Each structure stands twice: as C-alpha cells, then as structure tokens.
Amino acid sequence: MDADGPITTPFTRLLGIRHPIVSAPMGRASQPELAAAVTNAGGLGGLGFSWDSPERIEELVGAVRQLTNDGPFLANFALEWDQHQRMDAALSAGARIISFFWGDIAPYVDRAKAAGALVVHTVGTPEEARRSIDLGVDILVAQGNEAGGHVWSRLSTMVLVPLVADVAGKVPVLAAGGIADGRGLAAALMLGASGVWIGTRFLASTEAACHADYKRRLIEAAASETIETTLFDGGWPDAPSRVLRNRAVEVWEAAGRPKSGSRPGEGEEIGRTPDGKPVRRYSFPSLLSGGQGDIDDFAIYAGESVGLVREILPASAIVRALVEDAAEIMAQRSGHRSGHSTKS
Ligand SMILES: Cc1cc2nc3c(=O)[nH]c(=O)nc-3n(C[C@H](O)[C@H](O)[C@H](O)COP(=O)(O)O)c2cc1C
C-alpha cells in the first residue's frame, strides 16, 4: 500500500490508494493512458468498456495493468446493454473493480464478487442506493444531474450526496457531477462523500482520448452552455445526456424541435470513429481523437463544471491541484473553528 495522502477516507483505505479521486469512466474517451495517469498519481483511474469487444477489453486491461504496474483501476459497464460477456472478459483479464451505470445490477453482482472484484454502482436516488446495498455493492456513486454525459438522476449533487450518505452506512459514497477543483472535493467530503468521481475536468486533460476540437470547446465553454437533452438518441434511445449547446442542437431547435425520425439531416453521415466506422447525425458517439468530423455536428458531452475548466492539463496535475487545494481549504476551516473556540 502507498503511504497515505493528506486526505484519507474510508474509500482510500478500502482501496489502499493515496487520494480520494476517481477519473470517471467516460466511454471510449477514457483509455488506459488517462486511467493509468490518475492511478499513478495516487487516485483511481476509470475505464469505460460498454461498447468494446471482449478481445479489445482484454487488450485494454492488459495495457492499463502494464502502465500502472498492476495498480488499481475501474472497469465500467452501462447496463442499457447486456454486459455479461464484456464483464467476464474484464474479470478474466484481471479487472478487480467493476462499475455499473444505467440499470439493474442484480444479474451481475454475484459473478463479479465470485471473481473477487469490488462492485461499484452509480445511483440517482437514496432508494436505489438502499437496494444496491442490499444486493451487496461495495461502493456507491451518487451522480447529480449537473454531471456531463448521460445523466441518471433528476437531483442535484448537493442534495443527492447527503441523501445517499444517509442510507449508505459503512459503504463509501463518491460524489459525481459538478466537481472540478479542490473546492468541489472539499464540499463533497463535507456532504458525507468519501471521494469524488470526476468526468468533465479529466476530459480536458492531456491524456483524455477525445478530439482536440472537443477539448478546445471544453476550455471555451461557460457553465450556462450545457443542456440536458435526449437529442442524441441514435443507438441509445430515451437516455438524457448533458451536452454543450452547439450547431447540431441549434439547427434542431430552429426547425421547431421535431421528433426523432424527422429531424434536419437525420441519419446522414457526419464523420468517422477512430476505427473508421461511420457516425450518423443524432447518434450518441462523440468525436474522439483519431476520429473524423466537425465537432459542431456531434454530441459534445460536458457537465456544468465545464465552466470551471480553463486549461488542458496533465491528469497528474489535476489530481495534485485537487488534493492540495482541498487540503488547504479544510485546514483553513479547522483553523477558523479553533480560532473561534479560543475566543469564545
Ligand atoms: C464524455 C463522457 C462520457 C461518459 N461516459 C460514461 C460511461 O461510459 N459510463 C459511466 O458510468 N458514466 C459515463 N459518464 C458519466 C461520468 O462517469 C460521470 O458520472 C460524470 O462525468 C460526472 O460529472 P462531471 O462531468 O460534472 O464531472 C460520461 C461522462 C462524460 C462527460
């Protein structure tokens, strides 16, 4: 186990890591380079495997294990699709932290645990948290509605985290949505979280595998430029996501917000994935590094915290700044408290 960092919590102790910071799984934008950078900086790197082949998952797990010298990392699956085969591939390649999003974990928990893995579940209500604890989940993620990407909850992080913490008992809770700096980390800990699960801030890192034009948009965007929408429903219907308002959104709005099937340019090819597959207008894949197309045609997933993101940084620098700033804020606060009690 690494030496303790300045902020230790039940989550860091459970995993034996230095810092209570997870780089959130973000589909194919979260590749081994990003996950390894975060794990090697003392946090926990997340990988999104929801759409990869079992063979590809084995390769990616092998890559992250090599890059981290067998450090911890998290393998994530969105349960909109059956994920048994993909989960089995990750487990057999050595993944020991399995994370689920967007659905019922009951069919998966026993298999993951039998392989010796910890199970992480992203929840959107305290009731859902209660149920997943009954199913044996080891770590809860409370994802508030201000989060980037697909959003599961109607509730804001500020309200959801303490509600989930109230029912979680000894199960560590990670706060997700709206956290991008040390102030957010400190606030999450005050709300009862044991750590933070950060997407958008790590998307604007050197190592994230989204396109350079995507990263540029993140740097430029104001917090008020995100919307929650089901517009990008191709391949993932009725699933609200938080994206930046861009030309694709504006053209659809100007056309009177027509329903799926009769939207402007519906189904036309707007670009290519890094492996050369066509991407159709209004489908959910984003523009990745090595992909082709105009960022203004794609879904630009981003949370409200995008307004706090002003530069692209190496993931290790992001981890360091989060921890140092949060530790300083908390030290100042306890300084104020003791100052106050001395006077009174
Ligand atoms: C580009 C992008 C892709 C995402 N893909 C996934 C995913 O595959 N699985 C998942 O559980 N969450 C996914 N999320 C949600 C994140 O895991 C996380 O909950 C969210 O980013 C937290 O909010 P923040 O962006 O304000 O930090 C994604 C988020 C973004 C921005």
Automatic annotation (TrEMBL):
It comes from the Bacteria. It holds the Pfam family NMO. Residues 265-278 have a biased composition (Basic and acidic residues). The keyword Flavoprotein applies. Keywords: Flavoprotein, FMN, Monooxygenase, Oxidoreductase. Residues 255-283 are annotated as: Disordered. GO terms for molecular function: monooxygenase activity. The keyword Flavoprotein applies. This is Nitronate monooxygenase. The lineage of its organism: Bacteria, Pseudomonadati, Pseudomonadota, Alphaproteobacteria, Hyphomicrobiales.
